[in-house]
């Protein structure tokens, strides 16, 4: 009985440890996504959108499963909000379904661990 209770206690501790690890990865992944967004806004460089999408997802996914999860949730939410608000604004954001699909492809590219520099436009400052 004591062995059984010990095993249950250990699995609860390990489970809680795994959950805390996942949540920590998710928090750091969220920060990675925010940093990529801030860099994109600061750079204000035409043609760099896909690079920053891929880079944010890449950095977040490197954190582990929690970071990859956060990157997917944030990326999907951003595209869904953009699609929703485009329906109610005059002229939309200038984006369309095709651009949204390209953004999602860049997001997936980064999350899968592939090099975000594939999308890096020529002339983007090295700072980014």
TrEMBL record:
GO cellular component: high-density lipoprotein particle
Residues of the signal peptide: 1-18
Key word Signal present: yes
InterPro entries documented for this protein: Serum_amyloid_A, Synovial_Prolif_Regulator
Family to which the UniProt record says this protein belongs: Belongs to the SAA family.
Compositionally biased tracts (Basic and acidic residues): 111-128
One of the GO biological process terms: acute-phase response
Segments for region (Disordered): 88-128
Family matches, as Gene3D superfamilies: Serum amyloid A protein
Organism encoding this protein: Equus asinus
Gene this chain is encoded by: LOC123279012
A Pfam family per the record: SAA
Protein name (database record): Serum amyloid A protein
Primary role: Major acute phase reactant. Apolipoprotein of the HDL complex.
Alphabetically ordered keywords of this record: Acute phase, HDL, Signal
């Amino acid at each position: 009985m004591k062995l059984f209770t010990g095993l249950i206690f250990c699995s609860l501790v390990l489970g809680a440890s795994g959950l805390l690890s996942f949540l920590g990865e998710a928090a750091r992944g969220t920060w990675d996504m925010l940093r990529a967004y801030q860099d994109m806004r600061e750079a204000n460089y035409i043609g760099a959108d896909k690079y920053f999408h891929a880079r944010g997802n890449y950095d977040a996914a490197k954190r582990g499963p929690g970071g990859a999860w956060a990157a997917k949730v944030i990326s999907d939410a951003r595209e869904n909000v953009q699609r929703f608000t485009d329906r109610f604004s005059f002229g939309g954001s200038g984006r369309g379904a095709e651009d949204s699909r390209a953004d999602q492809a860049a997001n997936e590219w980064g999350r899968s661990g592939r090099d975000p520099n594939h999308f890096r436009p020529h002339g983007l400052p090295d700072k980014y």
